[in-house]
Amino acid sequence: MQYKRILLKLSGESLGGSTSCGLDPERLKSYAEEIEGVAGSGCQLAIVMGGGNIFRGLASEGRGFDRVQGDYMGMMATVINCMAMESTLRAMGIEVCHLSAFGIDPLCEKTSATRAIRALDEGKVVLFSGGTGNPYFTTDSAAVLRAVEIKADILLKGTRVDGIFDADPEKDHHAKLYESISFKEAYEKKLKIMDLTAFTLCEENRMPLLVFNMHSKGNLKRIVEGHKTGTLVHI
């Protein structure tokens, strides 16, 4: 087994399916099946969920909302997504621990590294919601933060493309896929992988990042087993 403990970042938009809005039951189920394939393998898995399929805080000002309140609304959206994933996983017989940056009794406990690591050691899938708990930070930053806190071996970013390209592969069919790239190279090439705060936090904490296609069946399990897929960003 390549990795003993991983942090998986999933975007909210992906849970919305083709419309990127709301919750698509089929997409939720397909993701849960990917997680199920890893959950019983001995690899410890924690997940950070985005909330853009319900509400994106960054766009709140353009809709008449205060940015800070908008960001908190976005955090609440991640709680809804985690609740949906939690319900789906439990229906499949998978034990889950839902932790949030702000505790919401009786829905979820407040996040702490101690609680998360204990749950992982007990064989549970840990779901992190609520972002960092602070406005002006993205869920990408939350993913890096939680990965560092639980001492994950690697941070995985699940996307709908095969990794990091030198151009948008959905618009340019000649776009080149990078098998691996350093944080420095990615920054110099201005590749849009994460926001700068999250990317810098990842590099400073020497947390390797793997960007891969979450929509390709079996990909998550292949990564855990050590097969090459996606793009590895390294120091």
Estimate the strand proportion.
15-25%
**What spatial form do the alpha-carbon principal axes imply?**
globular
Q: How much helicity do the residues have?
A: 25-40%
**CATH architectural type:** 3-Layer(aba) Sandwich
> How confident overall, as mean pLDDT?
93
> Strand arrangement, largest sheet?
4-3-5-2-1-6-10-11-9
Question: Cα-atom Rg, whole angstroms?
Answer: 17 Å
Which oligomeric form is depicted?
A: single chain
Explain how this protein is built.
There is one protein chain. The protein has helices spanning 12-15, 25-39, 67-91, 113-121, 139-149, 183-188, 196-204, 219-224, and strands spanning 5-10, 44-49, 96-100, 109-110, 125-129, 154-159, 164-165, 177-178, 180-182, 209-213, 231-234. With 235 residues, it is an alpha/beta fold. It has a single domain (5-234), classed as Carbamate kinase.
